[in-house]
Specification:
It comes from Corynebacterium lipophiloflavum (strain ATCC 700352 / DSM 44291 / CCUG 37336 / JCM 10383 / DMMZ 1944). By secondary structure, the chain is of the alpha/beta class. It is built from 28 helices and 18 strands. The N and C termini lie far apart (76 Å). The protein binds glutamine and zinc ion.
Length: 753
């Protein structure tokens, strides 16, 4: 059975009109029953298969059935039985979201993307009971609708590498479970199955050598099964280049092998196509993941063809696919009516990428029009003065090379700021946002639709800010915030106000479960036409004698949560965004703002998958942050905020940000992280004492305990008291009493100092 010539690794599951999101949320809210949920999602899957066939994926097995209600890792874990649950819908959602009796599985980032997967909890010696019905019914429903789809699961090595704890003693039993699933699929007449092993491209807690060993262990067993008893296996390695594993893959000879040859991957490993061509023998059907599955730029078809030619050496037939699932990009450009026309011509979302794949398969002769369009996009993009802004380029070029450092040193700044701000011991503050009430959302929607005038909208937001300031005064917090009611999202807000970005109308991408984001696109040199936050900050400050923090999202986070340029290094965009924010810092200072927070919750997210690429990343990321604060007056207290508790890999970088105050998530880990922190950190620090991810009111006593635990590692004159993160997802019913308890806890501890 031949592998299809043109295929994709996966397609957005959420639905062009976010049908899956609606179905999930309606089911969770009891607005629809399980049957309606199943029939709605069945229609969505079949519509998707029909749509993909209309787009030209007509060969048998060209369409992957990468189906999941909530998450692909959970889906695989339930199918192979690493997690018990079978086909029970409510059990599945309890694992994903928790219920009265169980806490949800932990969620974390899928490789270096903004998608979050659920982390399976495993135990040595546990039972593994496969549930093949989960996948058989997908094959069956597709067949009834006239499609021969390719079931797609996460592979055994990756599934264990991503579970908690990492327990490779389960690998043999797990491989047997996969074998059972494969046998069931063969029984149902399936000829090709896709198993993704992206763990092979990343330095996770398991080393590259160890992973190569596990790859050999599991896959030699699966491949040893006679093909009369199992489907052909399509092993995929999205998200980067394999290293040690490549020779094992060459020796294993799976029936088909996918490699990621996206520009993004070849940027850091230009030699990869050649290594693949040299290592993978002719018996293996090579599938070139040549179209970028995670960025939105139209492919340069000529350059992509050259890469394909490296694999085609010796006349070998190579199939063409995406580098990763298309789940990371929006469905289609057709849903965008308001993009600037030049920018629109440079873009390619999921559906447009499928056309690119077909053009590459057809070749230049047969697909002249597509190649001509690609040439035009490449040319106009290189020449565009919409992208290239010489004033910005000059300014970046004039920056000092290498390390930049704010003067004077922290100790001196601390003294100056101490006098200027006059804060009490253990000062209290919050991280920025206050609850995004239905009223705020409605005002924003009404403003967008024109039902509210600009002036009315501004009035509504001012009223909100006033209420938030009054509440904080009454509660007795020391450093106040304006509550961020004007921000739909901490990145999109800035992207909409900066030149060099465009926002989409319908470019929804699944973040986790039913949650979607609409990442902005950085398409050109970034600059700031006018101040972005100053009016709100000034208004908020006018309402109080206490310092009100100016709130900025940092350059690394703005970049991490956007689609990035592929024509300049990330560091260039980061420097440009940093300079725009630096101007905002001086404007805030000029408006009388004494404390400015620059949030960088995504600093760890952009960390490269390969350890040897991390130091260079951290260098430019830290530098970009420092550029924002470089010219700040010594009196201005610069805060930063990061929200995850595993700091291990980046703790030096966080210290290197050289902020005056760093607030971090710490409540859940009970301040454990502070043990590492004190040796590296010299600045002030606000480990969160309230876990805002959970919908409860923390008591004064528990926060007293956490503050005391923090004082065991942090000297009194450097400790702040604050929640773990912003409060936008909470309600006032929890926020008000929680903050009162937080201030009471500080008072109690401070009284005993
Ligand atoms: N200032 C932001 C807020 O409070 C920070 C959000 C975040 O860390 N993700 O909402
Ligand atoms: Zn946070």
């Amino acid at each position: 059975m031949n592998f299809p010539k043109a295929t994709i690794e996966g397609y957005p599951r959420i639905g062009a009109n976010r049908e899956l999101k609606r179905a999930l949320e309606s089911y969770w809210a009891d607005r629809i029953d399980a049957d309606t949920f199943r029939s709605t999602t069945h229609s969505l899957r079949v519509d998707t298969y029909n749509h993909l066939r209309d787009l030209g994926l007509t060969e048998d097995y060209a369409i992957p059935a990468d189906v999941a209600y909530y998450d692909q890792v959970l889906e695989t874990a339930l199918t192979v039985g690493l997690i018990p649950g079978g086909t029970d819908l409510d059990e599945e959602f309890a694992l994903a979201r928790g219920n009265d009796t169980r806490v949800p599985l932990e969620m974390t980032k899928w490789f270096d993307t903004n998608y979050h997967y659920l982390v399976p909890e495993v135990a040595a010696g546990q039972e593994i009971t496969p549930a093949p019905e989960r996948i058989l019914r997908l094959v069956e429903e597709a067949r009834e609708a006239g499609h021969v789809v390719r079931p797609a699961l996460v592979g055994p090595v990756t599934l264990l590498a991503l579970s908690k704890p990492v327990e490779f003693s389960l690998l043999d039993a797990l491989t047997d479970a996969y074998a059972e699933i494969l046998a069931a699929l063969k029984g149902a007449g399936v000829e090709w199955v896709q198993l993704a092993e992206p763990a092979l491209v990343a330095d996770l807690s398991t080393t590259d050598e160890e992973l190569a060993g596990y790859l050999e262990q599991a896959w030699s067993k699966l491949l040893a099964i006679d093909t009369a008893e199992r489907p052909n296996l399509y092993l995929t390695t999205p998200y980067g280049a394999t290293r040690k594993a490549l020779s094992v893959l060459g020796a294993l000879e799976p029936e088909a092998l996918h490699v990621d040859l996206s520009p993004w991957t070849l940027d850091s490993d230009a030699d990869y196509p050649k290594r693949v061509a040299d290592t993978i023998g002719p018996k293996v059907q090579l599938v070139a993941g040549i179209i970028d599955g995670r960025n939105v730029w139209a492919a340069n078809l000529r350059e992509r063809t050259e890469v394909l030619e490296v694999l085609r050496a010796g006349g070998r037939e190579v199939a063409v696919s995406t580098s990763t699932s298309l789940q990371h990009v929006p469905h289609t450009l057709n849903a965008e009516k308001n993009l600037p026309i030049d920018v629109a011509n440079w873009l390619s979302f999921a559906d447009e990428k499928i056309a690119e794949i077909q053009a590459l398969v057809a070749g230049e002769e047969a697909a002249q029009e597509a190649f001509a369009r690609s040439d035009r996009a490449v040319r106009t993009r290189t020449e565009s003065d919409h992208i290239h802004n010489s004033a910005v380029a000059d300014r970046v070029a004039q920056l000092p090379a290498g390390e930049v450092k704010r003067a004077p040193e922290f100790a001196e700044r601390k003294r100056i700021q101490g006098e200027a701000l006059g804060l009490p011991d253990l000062p209290t503050t919050t991280i920025g946002s206050f609850p995004q009430t239905t009223e705020i959302r409605k005002a924003r929607a009404d403003h967008k639709s024109g039902a509210l005038t600009d002036a009315e909208y501004t009035e509504a937001l001012k009223k909100e800010i006033k209420g938030v300031i009054e509440m904080q005064e009454e509660i007795g917090l020391d450093v106040l915030v304006h509550g961020e009611p004007e921000r739909n999202d901490m990145v999109q807000y800035f992207a909409e106000l900066l030149d060099g970005f465009v926002a989409t109308e319908n470019g929804w991408v699944q973040s986790y479960g039913s949650r979607c984001t609409r990442p902005p696109i950085v398409f050109g040199d970034v600059s700031r036409p006018e101040p972005m936050t100053v009016e709100w900050a000034k208004y908020a400050q006018s309402l109080s004698d206490k310092p009100v923090k100016g709130m900025l999202t940092g350059p690394v986070t703005i970049l991490a949560w956007s689609f990035k340029r592929d024509d300049v290094p990330l560091s260039v965009s980061a420097d440009q965004i940093a300079l725009a924010l630096a101007d905002e810092v001086s404007d805030l200072e000029a408006a009388g703002i004494k404390v400015i927070q620059i949030d960088e919750p995504a600093l760890r997210e952009l960390l490269p998958l390969r350890a040897d690429e991390r130091p260079a990343y951290l260098d430019w990321a830290v530098r970009a942050f420092r550029l924002v604060a470089l010219e700040a007056q010594p009196e201005t207290q610069i805060h930063t905020h990061l929200c995850y508790s595993e700091f291990g890999q980046i703790i030096d970088a966080v210290a290197g940000l050289d902020a005056d105050v760093t607030s971090i998530e710490a409540a859940r880990s009970k301040m454990e992280l502070l043990e590492d922190i004190d040796e590296t950190f010299h600045s002030e620090i606000g480990p969160g004492v309230w876990d805002i991810h959970s919908p409860r009111v923390p008591s004064t006593e528990e926060m007293v305990e956490l503050i005391r635990a923090a004082l065991a590692n942090v000297p009194t004159d450097r400790l702040w008291v604050n929640p773990d993160c912003g409060l936008k997802t909470r309600g006032y019913a929890e926020v008000e009493p929680s903050l009162k308890n937080l201030v009471a806890a500080r008072d109690e501890v401070a009284a005993g100092l």
